[in-house]
């Protein structure tokens, strides 16, 4: 019947044979066999083409509906991908989440993870967000579940080549030669107060970015000193792309939390992503 359907679409045994990957004779022979079984003609044979008989037109319509039912039944057995939207800051997306996505897709190929990178606090209902990484302190709102993802421990980072050129910035007389790379949080005043408790050390050079990731990239390019959460730069410190030239670590009030509704729209997928992020977090620290 499949060969009859293809022949009916093309109205040509040769073209039907090319689509099916068989010989023209095999298609013609099967159609003749079907006509013999049914006891009626399905095609009118012409020198260069075929024409469906009235019986053939009615038969092919019914066959195609049957094929559609078979296809629908087959598709219904296939698991549909589970869509999940996670809201994160652009820096978290670029510095932590995106490098780990290949691992996630390998572990969970059936979850279609959609990443919403924004500094705006997304709304779980109006923005259709299932999970969010939020910077702050719980509680984040009624009906929300929050797990600590990372403590916000801030360190200074710079290119090792820049430090070799300008000298250790932890020495006040050297710090003035460095540009301070600021982000939207602007923790430099607090950091310098902790790093130099005996007096305010300053630098007359300042460059400001709206994203921490940009400040980190500028530091790696040798443009100055940046402040960043330790977990954002752990791999860079391990590879010596960046170094931490200060012993000072600044602990601030807010941390990074993984937040989701207590009654999520897709509980199974949300649970799996939460578990994976916990594993990825442990691997990053380990």
From TrEMBL:
<keyword id="KW-0238">DNA-binding</keyword>
<keyword id="KW-0805">Transcription regulation</keyword>
<dbReference type="Pfam" id="PF00126">
    <property type="entry name" value="HTH_1"/>
</dbReference>
<dbReference type="InterPro" id="IPR000847">
    <property type="entry name" value="LysR_HTH_N"/>
</dbReference>
<protein>
    <submittedName>
        <fullName>LysR family transcriptional regulator</fullName>
    </submittedName>
</protein>
<dbReference type="Pfam" id="PF03466">
    <property type="entry name" value="LysR_substrate"/>
</dbReference>
<dbReference type="InterPro" id="IPR058163">
    <property type="entry name" value="LysR-type_TF_proteobact-type"/>
</dbReference>
<dbReference type="GO" id="GO:0043565">
    <property type="term" value="F:sequence-specific DNA binding"/>
</dbReference>
<feature type="domain" description="HTH lysR-type">
    <location>
        <begin position="1"/>
        <end position="53"/>
    </location>
</feature>
<comment type="similarity">
    <text>Belongs to the LysR transcriptional regulatory family.</text>
</comment>
<keyword id="KW-0804">Transcription</keyword>
<dbReference type="InterPro" id="IPR036390">
    <property type="entry name" value="WH_DNA-bd_sf"/>
</dbReference>
<dbReference type="GO" id="GO:0006351">
    <property type="term" value="P:DNA-templated transcription"/>
</dbReference>
<dbReference type="InterPro" id="IPR005119">
    <property type="entry name" value="LysR_subst-bd"/>
</dbReference>
<dbReference type="GO" id="GO:0003700">
    <property type="term" value="F:DNA-binding transcription factor activity"/>
</dbReference>
<dbReference type="InterPro" id="IPR036388">
    <property type="entry name" value="WH-like_DNA-bd_sf"/>
</dbReference>
């Amino acid at each position: 019947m499949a060969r009859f359907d293809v022949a009916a679409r093309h109205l040509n045994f040769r073209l039907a044979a090319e689509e099916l990957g068989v010989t023209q004779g095999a298609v013609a022979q099967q159609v003749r066999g079907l006509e013999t079984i049914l006891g009626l003609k399905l095609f009118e044979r012409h020198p260069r083409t075929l024409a469906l008989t009235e019986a053939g037109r009615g038969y092919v319509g019914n066959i195609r509906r049957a094929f559609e039912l078979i296809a629908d039944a087959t598709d219904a057995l296939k698991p549909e991908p589970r869509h999940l939207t996670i809201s994160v800051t652009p820096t978290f997306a670029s510095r932590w989440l995106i490098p780990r996505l290949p691992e996630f897709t390998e572990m969970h190929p059936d979850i279609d993870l959609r990443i919403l990178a924004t500094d705006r606090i997304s709304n779980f209902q109006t923005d259709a967000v299932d999970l969010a990484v939020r910077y702050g302190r719980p509680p984040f709102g009624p009906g929300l579940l929050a797990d600590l993802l990372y403590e916000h421990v801030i360190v200074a980072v710079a290119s090792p080549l820049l430090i070799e050129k300008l000298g250790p910035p932890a020495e006040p007389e050297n710090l003035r030669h460095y540009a301070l790379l600021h982000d939207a949080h602007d923790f430099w005043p607090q950091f310098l107060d902790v790093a130099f408790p005996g007096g305010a050390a300053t630098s007359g050079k300042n460059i400001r970015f709206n994203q921490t990731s940009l400040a980190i990239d500028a530091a790696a390019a040798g443009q100055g000193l940046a402040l960043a959460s330790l977990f954002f730069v752990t791999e860079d410190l391990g590879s010596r792309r960046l170094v931490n030239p200060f012993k000072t670590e600044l602990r601030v009030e807010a941390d990074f939390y993984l937040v989701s509704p207590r009654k999520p729209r897709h509980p199974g997928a949300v649970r799996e992503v939460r578990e994976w992020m916990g594993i990825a977090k442990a691997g990053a620290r380990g």
